[in-house]
């Protein structure tokens, strides 16, 4: 006895079940990248001195956490994978550059008022 599948209802059911799942995952993916872009923007242009220092502190602690995680994973048996840390180092450099930009802009603003 052979059975044939009617692809219309099966396809329609699959679309109704999978479309919300794909929509949610694509929204999560989009929000992740928007959050990442906003974070980079805030690192390069902090609102005030305290926010700049806070960004540097977060970047430094993240770098230290990744460093210790890498040390623990190798356990002294093999060489460290330094590529893992390069991204965190560039993030720390970016936050330092953001604080420098803030200090330079405040210095220029003070010179304008003199």
Question: Would you kindly provide a brief summary of this structure?
Answer:
By secondary structure, the chain is mainly α.
Walk me through the structure:
Keywords: Coiled coil, Membrane, Transmembrane, Transmembrane helix. By secondary structure, the protein is mainly alpha-helical. The chain folds into two domains: about 1-35; about 45-110. It is about 80% helix and about 0% strand. The protein has helices at about 5-45, 50-75, 85-110. Helix 1 packs across helix 3 (about 85-110) and helix 2 (about 50-75) packs antiparallel against helix 3 (about 85-110). It is flat, with a radius of gyration of 25 Å. The N and C termini lie far apart (about 95 Å). About 5% of the residues are buried.
Radius of gyration: 25 Å
Give the overall form. Answer: flat
Proportion of beta-strand residues: under 5%
Number of domains: 2
Main beta sheet: strand number and arrangement? none
Give the integer mean of the pLDDT values.
Answer: 86
SSE ordering: HHH
Low-confidence spans: pLDDT under 50, at least 5 residues? none
Q: What is the helix fraction of residues, given as a range?
A: over 70%
Labels describing this entry:
114 residues; mainly alpha; 2 domains; 0% strand
SSE diagram, text form:
Layout: H1 7-44, H2 49-74, H3 83-112
Helix pairs in contact: 1-3, 2-3
């Amino acid at each position: 006895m052979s059975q044939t599948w009617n692809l219309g209802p099966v396809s329609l059911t699959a679309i109704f079940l999978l479309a919300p799942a794909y929509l949610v995952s694509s929204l999560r993916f989009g929000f992740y990248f928007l959050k990442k872009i906003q974070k980079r923007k805030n690192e390069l242009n902090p609102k005030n001195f305290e926010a700049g220092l806070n960004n540097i502190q977060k970047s430094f602690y993240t770098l230290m956490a990744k460093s210790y995680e890498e040390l623990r994973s190798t356990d002294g048996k093999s060489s460290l994978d330094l590529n893992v840390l390069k991204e965190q180092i560039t993030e720390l450099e970016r936050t330092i550059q953001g604080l420098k930009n803030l200090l330079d802009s405040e210095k220029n603003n003070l010179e304008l008022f003199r």
